[in-house]
């Protein structure tokens, strides 16, 4: 099996499994499950994606692109053991002991044409899934220099293959520790021209990011057991939005724009102290502008809503 074939085979056939501990057959790195370690699935996705696999540069590898990558490297040897000592030394030298700033964007995506909501079936290796696929919201971490809205759109396309347009803010949370992590829950709908259920067909081919995605109504949601969710956010948020108990607030506000600029700046800087200077004044603006939606969340559960943290 070649490097690309291993990548393709694992992403298609094994992301719904917990995976085992062991060495990567490509670079010999030891991979383990559990907090503080890197699983083999995460390692393979991050370190061994076939070159030029994402041919169209849209941020995820389609079935066509994966097939092309696997075919183009059919003659390449899977294992490359030459000069492992130099490789290990390079890996050690690349370890970054700083704590880069992180922020997360979550999405509640509703399709107006039929009132259904979009859910992701997370891969078994996703933290919080307990070694089995679980349902959750489209969500992801902000990339360096990216805004929360940009991250939300990118991660939703990657995990569900549905292009969306964020319409408003449902909740914004600040972790009151030295990390000062921001988590925003945005309301979104399929992008213009994509509301037709025949057009917004969600992801059905698994990869390292998710097993798939689906549109559900509240009756569908009620049929799922609580253990089938990564965190119980969909059964909390979807009914709240549907009933009008949780109403999206406008993103066209100076406080939100300032937060977006600050997150983009912090995720692209090497200055660990910048978050302590920049976040507090911006958060004060957010609290004043979105008083009912802004909360400090020091634990894994946000106050009042029972919202689980990423």
Automatic annotation (TrEMBL):
Residue ranges constituting the EF-hand domain according to the UniProt record: 54-76
Protein origin, superkingdom: Eukaryota
Keyword Hydrolase: yes
Matching PROSITE patterns: EF_HAND_1, EF_HAND_2, NUDIX
The Nudix hydrolase domain, residue ranges: 100-242
PANTHER family for this protein: BIS(5'-NUCLEOSYL)-TETRAPHOSPHATASE [ASYMMETRICAL], DIADENOSINE 5,5-P1,P4-TETRAPHOSPHATE PYROPHOSPHOHYDROLASE MUTT
Name of the featured protein: Calmodulin
Lineage: Eukaryota, Sar, Stramenopiles, Ochrophyta, Pelagophyceae
């Amino acid at each position: 099996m070649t490097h690309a074939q291993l990548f393709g085979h694992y992403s298609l056939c094994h992301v719904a499994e917990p995976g085992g501990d062991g060495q990567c057959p490509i670079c010999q790195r030891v991979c383990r499950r559990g907090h503080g370690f890197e699983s083999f699935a995460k390692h393979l996705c991050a370190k061994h994606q076939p070159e030029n696999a994402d041919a169209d540069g849209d941020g995820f590898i389609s079935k066509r692109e994966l097939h092309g990558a696997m075919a183009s490297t059919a003659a390449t040897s899977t294992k490359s053991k030459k000069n492992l000592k130099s490789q290990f030394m390079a890996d050690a030298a690349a370890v970054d002991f700083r704590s880069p700033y992180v922020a997360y964007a979550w999405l509640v995506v509703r399709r107006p044409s039929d009132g259904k909501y979009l859910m992701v079936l997370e891969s078994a290796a996703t933290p919080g899934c307990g070694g089995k696929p679980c349902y959750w919201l489209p969500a992801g971490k902000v990339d360096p220099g990216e805004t929360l809205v940009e991250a939300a759109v990118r991660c939703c396309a990657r995990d569900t293959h549905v292009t969306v347009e964020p319409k408003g803010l449902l909740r914004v949370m600040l972790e009151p520790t030295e990390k000062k992590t921001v988590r925003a829950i945005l309301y979104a709908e399929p992008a213009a021209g994509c509301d037709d259920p025949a057009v917004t067909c969600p992801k059905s081919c698994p990869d390292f990011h998710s097993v798939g995605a689906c549109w559900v109504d509240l009756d569908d949601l009620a049929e799922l057991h609580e253990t089938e969710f990564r965190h119980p956010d969909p059964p909390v948020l979807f009914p709240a939005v549907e009933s009008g108990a949780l109403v999206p607030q406008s993103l066209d506000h100076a406080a939100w724009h300032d937060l977006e600029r600050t997150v983009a700046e912090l995720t692209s800087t090497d200055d660990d102290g910048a978050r302590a200077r920049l976040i507090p004044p911006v958060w004060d603006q957010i609290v004043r502008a979105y008083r009912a939606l802004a909360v400090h969340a020091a634990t894994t559960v946000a106050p009042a809503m029972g919202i689980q943290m990423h």
